[in-house]
Specification:
Order of helices and strands: HEEHHEEHHHHHEHHEEH
Helix content: 40-55%
Radius of gyration: 28 Å
CATH class of the largest domain: Mainly Alpha
Shape: elongated
Structural class: alpha+beta
Number of domains: 3
Largest sheet: 4 strands, antiparallel
Strand order of the largest sheet: 1-3-4-2
CATH architecture of the largest domain: Orthogonal Bundle
Length: 189
């Protein structure tokens, strides 16, 4: 049996899932290839498959049934469901996103199908981190704030707290340092 006829036999065994067959189609891609082509994860592709947003067919593979996608249906899916992306350009985050904390953003799942809006939200949260001038007005500082303000490492300040050279109080899981105590410690250095 020639290789071509074996391939034709395998294509004829295809099971139609979305109402049309890909049999005889050259260039069909498996799930991993299709996900890479679309720039999404295979799991996201599975969600689109189960929602019926992309046409696929199941074929018998070496380890069981495998999903295969027609390149034309992949392009239709891209046009219908994925927004065009310009490399190097990040959309401007909305004003509502500028006030969102990084912690709350991390707990939210990306809402856009391609994740670019979520990336813009994360970039906005990182850019809106408190500056040293904002920290300077605080009376009580956390260890990371004290490290940023004093230009000393967190490990150095933590060691000073444990040896008793820097006064601090453990509140919850983190250390709180009075601004005056930090200033006094830095002057003694």
């Amino acid at each position: 049996m020639s290789r071509v006829s074996a391939l034709e036999r395998r294509l004829d065994q295809a099971v139609v899932v979305v109402g049309r067959t890909l049999s005889g189609l050259v260039g069909a891609m498996n799930k991993k290839e299709t996900a890479a082509e679309l720039g999404i994860t295979p799991r996201t592709l599975e969600r689109h498959m189960s929602a019926g947003r992309i046409a696929y067919e199941m074929r018998r593979g070496k380890t069981g049934e495998e999903a295969y996608f027609d390149p034309a249906s992949v392009e239709r899916f891209r046009a219908d469901h994925l927004s065009p992306v310009i490399p190097g350009k990040v959309e401007e985050p909305s004003q509502a996103l500028a006030t969102t904390s990084p912690v709350s953003l991390a707990r939210q799942a990306p809402t856009s199908q391609n994740g670019h809006q979520f990336a813009a939200m994360i970039a906005a949260a990182i850019n809106s981190a408190p500056s040293v001038s904002d920290i300077a007005h605080k009376i009580m500082l956390t260890l990371p704030d004290a490290a940023a303000l004093s230009s000393l490492s967190k490990d150095h300040l933590s060691g000073a707290i444990h040896t008793g050279k820097l006064k601090a109080k453990k509140i919850g899981r983190g250390w709180k340092i009075k601004r005056d105590d930090l200033d006094l410690y830095v002057k003694k250095l």
